[in-house]
Amino acid sequence: MCHRRLLAVLAALAIAFGALTVFSGGRVLFGGAEAGQVVGFVLWFNFLAGFAYAAVGLGLWRRRRWAVRGAALLALLTAIIAALFGLHVLGGGAYELRSVGALTLRLSFWSAVAVITRRAAQSTTA
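RESULT FIELD:
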């Protein structure tokens, strides 16, 4: 797949991922959905990050240079939240197993987007 198409697919996925994240997080935060043993800082991070997912996705769609750094920043921030979540769990804090899966998915997605977009940006400037 050419770089342009790949970036378009990643951008569309990021925008959709952001919209779904805001919607699902908003339902839990503001009523309308039950989520079990919610870890507050993870839920708030995911909800707020959903807006950033969509913004970075739009930046990727428009091929803005800042979006490559934005994807890397989202991966880094998600890794930090995942580490803090891990400490919460190790400390005996209540949590839902699906939170582990959701954080793993988010971290994997944004790490992949960061690597792919960085490589694509480097190959177009080389």
